[in-house]
Amino acid sequence: MKKLVLLLVAIILNAKVITDSLNRTVNIPDNIKKAVAVGPGALRLVVYLGSQDKIAGIEKREKKFIFARPYILAHKELLKLPVVGMGGPNVQINLEKIISLKPDVIIAGYISKSRADMITAKTGIPVVVISYGKLGTFANEKLFNSIKILGEVFNKQKRAEDVTKYIKNLDKDIKKRKFKTDKKIYIGAVAFKGLHGITSTMPKFPPFKMLGIKNVINSDAKSQIFINKEALFKLNPDVIFIDESGMKFIKDSFIKHLKAYKTHEIYGILPYNNYMTNIGTAYADTYYIGKVLAPGKFKDIDIKQKTDEIYKFLVGKPCYNSMAEFFGGFKKLFKGFVCRII
């Protein structure tokens, strides 16, 4: 009954009713002219929908570490917008600043129902909440539902369908290339609520799982964990992948004793966990890992070309060269026994 009443009110007021990721019914204008995106992952999905021109202000956090965020690299004009809060998992926003910008809607990532309702009560601006699911994951129904929601918010239903289809096709393409390997594989320096060194890993690393391979670290932990150096040295992986955001924390005094270092089997991947999952980077990393470990299965993939194809579709511009210049890009690390990293 409540939804029916809201629908009738929306029709009268030239508005529409949106059901967000928390199953809240939100009454928003039919034609969104200005919006604000706050919280983890919100602005990224707005860019995926091609609606960045509607954004009136961004969080301070979005202006930092931009080389890990293709959606910002592709649209640096966003950096010139007013700051509407610090950002972060607790969504620290400046309500007065948001009110002054007069947005038609606030897109909020990962906030509670009570906080969303509180923001609307204090600002008079409708809040639509979105979610990607658990941190570090991608291509799940919560993500696709959030893309659909934003398609309805910005009247970009076709684009939302195209984005979902594109991501699902990437997923399908990679999974059909699954392979087995006897090599011991490890992922290190995994970024999680900050940057870390080689002992930071993810036992259930999503790109590994998608490819059908396992992290040499056997644990039931579904998220990031730290292991001790002795355990890593004892396992002595054949191949190591490094999240390049943590390179400055890797000490040559330890890594040079590992088998993978001595056999030149350490590879850099781009960081994809930064203010929630950078979906495009996650898939690019997965393609690269597959090409390193099973080149025959990925012989048709030019990794740089594929990466820029993904970025161009999702954020509108190729970003690989900029990211590679900053982080190092897809390549072997420590080749030639270069030990010192600064």
TrEMBL record:
Domain (Fe/B12 periplasmic-binding): residue spans on this chain: 34-297
Keyword Transmembrane: no
PROSITE patterns cross-referenced by the UniProt entry: FE_B12_PBP (PS50983)
Record-linked InterPro entries: ABC_Transporter_SBP, ABC_transptr_periplasmic_BD
UniProt keywords, alphabetically: ATP-binding, Nucleotide-binding
GO MF, one annotated term: ATP binding
Keyword Transmembrane set for record: no
Domain of life: Bacteria
Annotated Pfam families: Peripla_BP_2 (PF01497)
Gene3D superfamilies linked: Nitrogenase molybdenum iron protein domain
Protein name: HemV-3 iron (III) ABC transporter, ATP-binding protein
